[in-house]
Specification:
The protein is an alpha+beta fold. It is about 35% helix and about 25% strand. The protein has helices at about 140-170, 175-200, 210, 220-235, 240-260, 320-335, 350-360, 380-385, 405-415; strands spanning about 10-15, 15, 30, 45-50, 55-65, 70-80, 85-90, 100-105, 110-115, 120-125, 135-140, 260-265, 275, 290, 300, 310-315, 340-345, 370, 390-395, 400-405. β17, α7 and β18 (about 370) form a beta-alpha-beta unit. The model is unreliable at about 1-35 and about 255-275 (pLDDT under 50).
Length: about 425
């Protein structure tokens, strides 16, 4: 859910969490883990500084999921107004279960609060003109300080990433679009690295559901399961933990369905056939490839076991392949020292053109192979390749970790696998 929106949206869209989502220019999450500071339990108090925090109204909201647990809407459960010194106290109209709640200040600046009815959360913060609250002091909870630390670092990166993606959608200049794409990919790498670092350094904290909103559930299924399991005892009665669990299961189901998807012909009487380039998918062991390089030496994919390898099917005559090559070159330059290799399989029939394209495009890795059989290339037939460019990313154990990677998606996945 984008926290600036007044209406609720779906929890998951395209594999991303979108509920109390601070990724939409968000929020500070406040966590109460003990009995709280001085003041009544089941209450929030604080002092807002700056002109935007004086005499302003605020509304506390809880998320009410729909029947399928994915969509839903916000429901107000209490409101308050700060005085002209910025002091306020908000008492909800019901006892709170341990969960994530949204505090909307002036109808436009959100904060996310994790608490239950045994706690009193106290906030000292300057309300900015826009964006997110970067400097807040939260009393009575170590977890509150931890989660503020996460968002203080994460939100500038998420804001920049959103702006880059928005500009990409508006530009028609291919060169500018490529530059924006590269910058967005790098920013995504930085944001994901920080989210994973925070999770690693704060095991079991309720604040860890925040970083999950910034990570892809399909690509980080193990990490999602670990965090959701570690926080279940504290947050299982709340809507947010349930929503993330439901969305994560949905993403895993979609991944499985993609692997099993087939295209039927006619009335279905004919045997199903795999969809394009999908004989092997994520989770399958990559079949070995043994073929000669431009110098006549035999190169084997299995010799690269222990490395992360991009198996890249291409050809000198393939325009889209040649346009994608600069992205592969950048990835190789950036990640080769960390254990990344490229295994290029050409569907060429002319050796001279194949070799010239390697030199012209600066494909300066050693693993280039081709049997000069064009579309009858043995490796392409074994993998079920029916169109190019086509690439599969193979992990250190020889298992396919991703397919159909392009541009920024390749860099983001490599960053994940090579951490």
């Amino acid at each position: 859910m984008k926290v600036y929106e007044q209406n609720a949206s779906r929890f998951a869209r395209g594999g991303r969490m979108k509920w109390l989502t601070v990724a939409a220019l968000g929020a500070v999450i406040l966590v109460g883990c003990g009995t709280g500071t001085n003041g009544p339990k089941n209450a929030i108090s604080g002092v807002f500084s700056g002109d935007n925090g004086l005499g302003v109204t605020m509304d506390l909201r809880r998320w009410v999921p729909d029947k399928n647990g994915v969509g839903g809407k916000f429901e107000s459960i209490g409101s308050a107004t700060s005085d002209m010194q910025g002091n306020f106290e908000l008492i909800p109209d019901r006892a709170l279960v341990m969960d994530y709640y949204q505090l909307m200040v002036s109808g436009m600046t959100p904060m996310v609060i994790i608490m239950d009815s045994t706690m009193h959360v106290h906030i000292q913060a300057e309300i900015p003109d826009g964006g997110f609250i970067a400097n807040a002091t939260i009393s009575g909870s170590k977890a509150a300080s931890e989660v503020h630390e996460y968002y203080a670092h994460a939100m500038p990166m998420q804001t920049t990433l959103s702006m880059l993606r928005g500009t990409m959608q508006r530009t028609k200049d291919k060169e500018k679009m490529q530059d924006l794409s590269d910058r967005a990919a790098q920013k995504k790498i930085e944001a994901d690295s920080w989210a994973k670092q925070f999770i690693k350094e704060h095991p079991g904290s309720p604040a860890l559901l925040g970083p999950l909103e910034h990570l892809e559930p399909r690509a980080n299924a193990g990490l999602f399961a670990e965090v959701l399991d570690a926080t279940e005892a504290q947050l299982r009665d709340g809507a947010f933990h349930k929503a993330l669990s439901t969305a994560t299961k949905g993403a895993q189901s979609a991944r499985n369905n993609t692997r099993e998807r087939v295209v039927r012909k006619g009335n279905g009487a004919n045997p199903p056939r795999p969809v394009k380039n999908s004989r092997y998918g994520v989770g399958d062991e990559a079949p070995d490839i043994s073929m000669q390089d431009p110098d006549g030496n035999t190169r084997r994919l299995s010799d690269l076991r222990g490395k992360v390898v991009l198996v890249d099917f291409w050809a000198s005559w393939c325009g889209p392949c040649r346009r994608e090559n600069p992205n592969v070159v950048r990835a190789y330059q950036q990640f080769n020292a960390q254990g990344f290799e490229v295994f290029s399989v050409s569907l060429d029939q002319n050796a001279d053109r194949w070799k010239a394209a390697i030199a012209m495009d600066g494909l300066n890795w050693p693993n280039h192979v081709c049997d000069l059989k064009g579309w009858q290339n043995e490796a392409a037939r074994a993998y079920g390749v029916s169109s190019i460019p086509h690439a599969l990313l193979v992990d250190q154990n020889g298992t396919i970790a991703a397919t159909h990677l392009r541009g920024p998606a390749l860099a983001a996945k490599l960053n994940e696998l090579l951490r």
